[in-house]
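*Target chain*
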Amino acid sequence: MRHHPSLNMKPLKLIMPLLAVLLAGNLTAAAPRKLVLIAGKPSHPPGAHEFRAGALLLQQCLAGVPGLTTLVYSNGWPADNSAFDGADAVVIYADGGGGHPAIQPERIKFLEGLIAKGVGFGCMHYACEVPKDKGGKEFLDWIGGHYEHQFSCNPMWTPEFKKFPVHPATRGVQPFSILDEWYFNIRFRPDMKGITPILAATPSDEVRKGPYVYPKGPYEHIVAASGREEVMMWAVERPDGGRGFGFTGGHYHKNWGDPQFRKVVLNALVWLAKADVPPGGIESVLAADALEQNLDPKGKKK
């Protein structure tokens, strides 16, 4: 018996649009997330504030993460804002304060537009600091908090990170302790609204009394908070659907050689871009000379 052609065409006409939808969905799902790392201009003596070398090291560690593309722009803000086209997350690892690359007049509005679209935003080390009257309000909205001059402090010390919340940034991270310029007494949103502490520890009274890196202190309100746990890395999920984090470590370049220090940041970067963080976190192995690569030409280490 011969089949009438129209009997075969009807199911085919129904199936083809469905296949097209499924194919489009798969292509969309396969599109990699885009993470933009902005490394600041050279600053500080050799081995400190190695923003370019640190960002490139993190990029290398993220190279094998499925569904993620990481781009690094060195020496401050990219020359062309097209660098941010299609970005899912932007992270700044640079000097902050009044010269912060994100808060210059023509840039803060640009960033505000990106973030309003749900783009993730993160800051590391000195980039966590902005003046309270120039960028402070925005940082409270965007990442939940910021370092505030003479409210926060920046001693060199060795916190012990013993316990972690359940969060993608902490997956696979084991307790660790490491010397760095860990900022604390961060200016957070009232009642820590919407903020998840990622790294927290309790400074000793000796650490609270200073000296701090600058100004040396001590500050009465820091000393008076004896025994209080302090947050040095945190994460937020914003109402616009975007994410944010602050990480106050990262002064010493050699610290990227510590697997736990490195992993918690790698996890946070992947989470920020809304790529998948595996149950054991982002695994990475450094080459023997990895920490000597891409250093800024500052002369010999002191």
Remarks:
- Residues 103 and 257 are 31 Å apart (CA to CA).
- DSSP finds seven helices and 13 strands in the chain.
